[in-house]
Amino acid sequence: MTVEWFDIVDENGTALDRATRARCHDGSKLLHPVVHVHVFNSGGKLLLQKRKLTKDIQPGKWDTSVGGHIQSGELLEDAIQREVLEEIGIEIDPARLRPLGRYLFESEIEREYVYSYACTHDGPFRIQEEEIDEVRFLDITEIDDLIATGETTPNFNREADLLRKEKLLGERAGVGLP
């Protein structure tokens, strides 16, 4: 089994040290960087992934289209391309993504420095079956229903608010995306 290493960052995203994935997820709350990519189709629906029941964090919940850790020393753009290709099987040009911002997210066991982006792609997708049960394009009503019934991750719930603020979810979903 390969040991994954993540950079430990400060609240500005500057690398200070590094630690193993296990250490970052053991309740130590070591702040480490992740990337999220929200994929909309040309009709404005948002692609969500349903996490495998075997995942160590938020198993069986609906989550961001693509989300993953940035490996220690890995460039942000390389992490985006790697995660998108691994999770949904498409190649993407990071320069064509719409940046949504950066924020800190904290759960019971970890703290993440999240880089969030959005783009448009209609598929087809090839999912990473070891980590994802399914992906599905959903409209705002379907997403709100999943949130209301507790079927989404807390991190996605926060990002749904960010997507609403950016006017990417709702009446004019996906308008202005690359």
From TrEMBL:
One of its GO terms (molecular function) is hydrolase activity. Signal peptide: none annotated. Transmembrane segments: none annotated. Gene3D superfamilies: Nucleoside Triphosphate Pyrophosphohydrolase. The keyword Nucleus does not apply. It comes from the Bacteria. It holds the Pfam family NUDIX. Coiled coil: none annotated. This is NUDIX hydrolase. Keywords: Hydrolase. PROSITE patterns: NUDIX, NUDIX_BOX. PANTHER family: ISOPENTENYL-DIPHOSPHATE DELTA-ISOMERASE (PTHR10885:SF0). Residues 30-160 form the Nudix hydrolase domain.
